[in-house]
Amino acid sequence: MKASVAIQSLPQAENDKELVRMVDEVIDYIRSTGLNYYVGPFETTIEGENYDQLMDIVKECQHVAIRAGAPKVSAYIKVVYEPEGEILTIDQKVTKHHQG
After folding, report:
1. Whole-prediction pTM value?
2. CATH code reported for the domain at 3-97
3. CB atoms near residue 20 (< 10 Å)
4. Nearest CA to 30 among 13, 16, 52, 47?
5. Which of 54, 79, 83, 84 has the fewest beta carbons under 10 Å from its own?
6. Contact indicator for 69, 22 with CB cutoff of 8 Å
């Protein structure tokens, strides 16, 4: 992997049910990209070989939340990018913590 992005999408919502619905739409969009991703309790991490593709996905997440009905959306983003090397993958970071 060359890049990894973690996004916490925070759409403005009338109540928790609506918030979860809008965030679920964002996660459905991320799933539709076909990239490897991991949903955590606060953010979703996406990894890939193409930095620009990941940045386009981050951008589109905001549009998805607005189309889902949010009048405003905030996001917290973390990025790791190493164009000439490899970064630690999601599996390398978390698998050992989720084995039975």
Report:
1. 0.93
2. 3.30.70.930
3. 11
4. 47
5. 84
6. yes
